[in-house]
Write a structure and sequence with these properties.
- By secondary structure, the protein is α/β, with parallel strands linked by helices.
- It has two domains: 191 residues, Glycogen Phosphorylase B (Rossmann fold); 163 residues, 3-Layer(aba) Sandwich (Rossmann fold).
- 41% of the residues lie in helices and 16% in strands.
- It contains 15 helices and 13 strands.
- The strands form two sheets. Strands 3-2-1-4-5-6-7 form a seven-stranded parallel β-sheet, sandwiched between helices.
- Helix 1 crosses helix 15 and helix 8 crosses helix 13.
Length: 389
């Protein structure tokens, strides 16, 4: 007979209650992790889902899905010291002793009866830590940057019960910060069964870059566009999927919209349809995984340089998938820097990858990233934490 504390095996007499804390509820990779995990918990475990965030375009959609969405002020963290934060943000941290009572009072009704908390990013994690101490608190860390894990936690004595790293690279990053109570649970990727596209009369290879047009990603964006400028437009068509609201994006759009189709930021269903029309996708992280599971050829072209001095992971194959997974398909395992010539070379190489090679890659990814597998790993972590507190 299952222990009443075993969340994996328990026959519930009441719904499990899971509370997520996240900066924004938009369409980014960290948000998709929450949505996929929440969906599994609701469908497979009849869980009551509460999402606490500051804002986001997905709020009404999530409410329609049956989730409780609570909006409350959060502030971003992109530094390892309070003194390095913008002045406005510093006020939150300098007054945290008093602010935590506001969060406790306002959120108490929503977190009451929770079985566990799952937080992401700095400020939501700090808020979650100020609430019910007896509730297991799991913190998901997506990146090796301070907007995901910050040393400010040490200043405020923030100690989640367990950290979940989305890759081995992030796990080792946490260890370098003195955090050893972490476990690797990769991104859950939920890919619907999309109909195969009808054979098009066009013989062009559709090359898709999946990246927001933000200044910090300019090395990848401009390498891709450098390839576009030299490519044979009779052989290729080009699409860029991602936010185009910035001044930098406006400049890029004006220069290249005559040859590149810019879709802007897309809802998930629209994104998957676009990816399903691609021949080759240039992406990193979760976006790369989604394209791979749609059986597309994927080139990992990053913008953040890893410890080996590079960011261009190149064409993903069955031979390099293990190393790529360690770095969350970011390209940070590489020694090479993203450039238009390297992108061009990999696009040529992608055209000779066999369907059998793609199937091998897909099976490997499914063993780690299917949402039900990820959910069960999370519930196992929660059970382990519950025994310790």
């Amino acid at each position: 007979m299952a222990s009443k504390f075993n969340l994996l095996e328990m026959d519930y007499t009441k719904s499990m209650k899971c509370v997520f804390f996240i900066n924004t509820i938009n369409r980014g990779g960290s948000e998709q992790y929450v949505y996929s995990l929440a969906k599994q918990l609701k469908e497979k475990k009849s869980a009551e889902i509460v999402i606490i965030s500051s804002n986001g375009v997905m709020a009404e959609f999530l409410r329609e899905c049956g989730y409780k969405v609570v909006l409350i002020p959060f502030v971003g963290i992109n530094a390892d010291r309070v003194s390095d934060l913008p002045i406005k943000h510093r006020l939150f941290y300098r007054n945290w002793f008093w602010l935590k009572f506001f969060y406790r009072a306002y959120l108490g009704q929503y977190v009451k009866g929770a079985d566990f908390f799952i937080s992401q990013q700095g400020y939501p994690t700090i808020v979650a830590s100020a609430l019910l101490r007896a509730v297991p608190h799991i913190n998901i860390v997506h990146h090796i940057l301070p907007n995901e894990y910050t040393s400010i936690y040490n200043e405020l004595n923030i100690n989640p019960n367990k950290f979940v790293a989305v890759s081995e690279e992030v796990r080792d990053f946490l260890a370098s910060k003195g955090v050893y109570n972490s476990e690797v649970i990769q991104n859950p990727i939920d890919i619907p069964n999309l109909a195969q596209d009808e054979i098009s009369e066009s013989k062009k290879h559709n090359i898709v870059l999946l990246s927001h047009l933000h200044e910090e990603k300019r090395s990848t964006i401009e390498s891709f566009l450098g390839f576009v400028e030299k490519a044979d437009i009779e052989e290729y068509s080009f699409t860029v999927i991602g936010d185009i609201s910035s001044a930098y994006a406006s400049e890029i759009y004006t220069r290249y919209n005559h040859i590149v189709r810019f879709t802007g930021s897309l809802a998930r269903d629209e994104l998957l349809i676009e990816l399903n029309h691609a021949d080759c996708v240039i992406a990193v992280g979760r976006s790369a995984l989604e394209a791979l599971l749609l059986k597309k050829k994927v080139i990992m072209a990053g913008h953040i340089i890893g410890k080996n001095g590079g960011n261009f992971g190149g064409l993903l194959t069955s031979e390099n998938i293990t190393e790529a997974a360690y770095y969350n398909y970011s390209g940070r395992h590489a020694k090479d820097i993203t450039s238009k010539d390297k992108i061009a070379s990999c696009i040529q190489e992608s055209q000779i990858i066999s369907p059998n090679e793609i199937e091998i890659i897909v099976r490997e990814l499914e063993s780690r990233h299917l949402p039900n597998i990820v959910m069960n790993k999370f519930l196992s972590v929660v059970d382990d934490v519950r025994k310790e507190i």
